[in-house]
From TrEMBL:
This is YifB family Mg chelatase-like AAA ATPase. Residues 213-396 form the AAA+ ATPase domain. Belongs to the Mg-chelatase subunits D/I family. ComM subfamily. The keyword ATP-binding applies. The lineage of its organism: Bacteria, Pseudomonadati, Bacteroidota, Cytophagia, Cytophagales. Gene3D superfamilies: 3.30.230.10, P-loop containing nucleotide triphosphate hydrolases (3.40.50.300). Keywords: ATP-binding, Nucleotide-binding. SUPFAM superfamilies: P-loop containing nucleoside triphosphate hydrolases, Ribosomal protein S5 domain 2-like. NCBIfam families: YifB family Mg chelatase-like AAA ATPase (TIGR00368). It comes from Algoriphagus aestuariicola. InterPro entries: AAA+_ATPase, CHLI-like, MCM_dom, Mg_chelat-rel, Mg_chelat-rel_C, Mg_chelatse_chII-like_cat_dom, P-loop_NTPase, Ribosomal_Su5_D2-typ_SF. The keyword NADP does not apply. It holds the Pfam family Mg_chelatase_C.
Length: 512
């Protein structure tokens, strides 16, 4: 007898429907076909042990399991449960009338318990799109899948529960989650707040500009000046995620298995801070079984690279394309996968190996040329993609011990949102652009027009400070964002002057 169940294979951040056909006939062997990897092939032992635990039997006949379509590689242990259900139906040990109306996924333990799996959210979305009645999966993943409405999410803890449910002997109520309620209740749950930061008003201002225009930032300053502390607070002033952005972000974390037990919709912008020993594959994604990297996990959020010159050169250079295209394409001989990577890059670095170049109190002990060599570890093409260069100075004792209340993130975020609203209106005819940092050169010329006084100031600044030509567009984009925050229709001289000061590393001879 032939039985048919349905599962799913995740490719990139989307899922493909997999049909699992089981045929039990004359013979004595077990065959699994349809391009399974080792983890899928090993399901025979897990399934057999789980069936025996609940007093079912593995047929001592010829069992053929076909995973179709056969040209898609099947990976992982999540096919255990649908294979087990198909074997029970095909060997006529049980009878399921609605087996083909459900997508079934789950990894079996030897005692028949179900272990959580990756990529549940895209599978649930695909199951609803294909018109299935429900999705049977491990209970620990049920809350994540219940983000998707109009499909029954049935969480089970054991193989026996899944069998009883499909036979009609056990009633399991579908898990229902009010996605919008969870989303809107969690929008303001930020862990860090700018109200905790004393002093550093100029850095807070730079962060506000970066958040309002979606600009990348690099902070240069001595150890202990507060670079990491300020970076961690940036997500608290970014505009809240839209529901669509939250679903996109949750899908990526679901595929990577980063959501954790009983997790639901991610309503906060992600903040990823990889260590400087990270490999290029771990940063951008890839591997034999392609997985999203740190830049995709930071999608719609912030990627923070602390101690930028300590990262390997190859690691930093692979970021150049994703910073421009806002997606990562991972190509293999048989498959090409796209992962979204629309993130803000925040980097920090010491000004020299000892950390005290340009320090107001401590003396730098680095020899001649060492400072420049240290800064040159970060390539020009990468710096070209960073709009704001901010010098961070240590906080004075008087500011540290001050009891004066500082501006909270909530107030700063309101100004950022107003600035983004102006940009949304401006780019309404360009759906792929929604902030000033994304403007191509032809739009910069059209939108960032300056008067004669502004041109004179910019010309003088480029000549006197030795600013490079690549700084020109960046200054205009940042000036446009400053004007948006000030609710100004035109870029004024004072907006340009402030934007110019955020190009520290473009000054010739900055490091002596």
């Amino acid at each position: 007898m032939v039985a048919k169940t349905f599962g799913s294979a995740v490719s990139g951040v989307d899922a493909n429907l997999i049909t699992i056909e089981v045929n039990v006939g004359q013979g004595t062997s077990f065959f699994m076909v349809g391009l399974p990897d080792s983890a899928v092939k090993e399901s025979q032992q897990r399934v057999e042990s789980a069936l025996k635990y609940f007093n079912y039997r593995m047929p001592r006949q010829k069992v053929v399991v076909n995973l179709a379509p056969a040209d898609i590689r099947k990976e992982g242990s999540a096919y255990d449960l649908p294979i087990a259900m198909g074997i029970l139906q095909a060997s006529e040990q049980v009878s399921f009338s609605e087996l083909e109306r459900y997508v079934i996924m789950g990894e079996l333990a030897l005692d028949g318990n179900l272990r959580p799996i990756k990529g549940v959210l895209p599978i649930a979305i695909e199951a609803r799109k294909r018109g299935f009645k429900g999705f049977i999966l491990p209970l620990e993943n049920a809350k994540e899948a219940s983000i998707v409405n109009n499909i029954d999410i049935i969480g089970v803890e054991t193989l026996d529960q899944a069998v009883d449910f499909l036979q009609g002997n056990l009633e399991i109520k579908p898990l229902v989650t009010d996605t919008r309620e969870i989303f809107y209740n969690s929008l303001d749950d930020t862990e860090f707040d700018f109200a905790d930061v004393q002093g550093q008003e100029n850095i807070k201002r730079a962060m506000e500009i970066a958040a309002a225009g979606g600009h990348n930032v690099i902070m240069i300053g001595p150890p202990g000046a507060g670079k990491t502390m300020l970076a961690k607070r940036l997500p608290s002033i970014l505009p809240p995620l839209s529901l669509q952005e939250a679903l996109e972000t949750t899908k990526i974390h679901s595929v990577a298995g980063k959501l954790g037990k009983h997790a639901s919709l991610l309503a906060q912008r992600p903040f990823r801070s990889p260590h400087h020993t990270i490999s290029d594959v771990a940063l951008v994604g890839g591997g034999g079984n392609p997985q999203p990297g740190e830049i995709s996990l930071a999608h719609n959020g912030v990627l923070f690279l602390d101690e930028l010159p300590e990262f390997k050169r190859t690691v930093l250079e692979v970021m150049r394309q994703p910073l421009e295209e806002r997606k990562v394409t991972i190509s293999r001989a048989k498959v090409s996968v796209d992962y979204p990577a629309n993130f803000m890059l925040i980097a920090s670095m010491n000004p020299c190996p000892c950390g005290y170049y340009n320090h107001p109190e401590k003396e730098c002990v680095c020899g001649p040329g060492i400072v420049q060599r240290y800064l040159n570890k970060v390539s020009g093409p990468l710096l070209d993609r960073i709009d704001l260069h901010v010098e961070v100075t240590p906080v004075r004792f008087e500011e540290m011990t001050s009891t004066r209340k500082t501006e909270p993130s909530k107030v700063i975020r309101e100004r950022v949102i107003k600035g983004r609203e102006r940009q949304k209106t401006r780019f309404q005819n360009n759906p792929e652009i929604y902030c000033n940092a994304m403007m191509p050169s032809h739009l910069v010329k059209e939108i960032c027009q300056i008067n004669e006084a502004g041109k004179t100031l910019l010309k003088t600044a480029m000549e006197r400070l030795g600013l490079s030509a690549r700084a020109y567009d960046r200054i205009l984009k940042v000036a446009r964002t400053i004007a948006d925050i000030a609710d100004s229709e035109n870029i004024r001289v004072e907006h340009l002057a402030e934007a110019i000061q955020y190009r520290s590393l473009d000054r010739e001879g900055w490091a002596g």
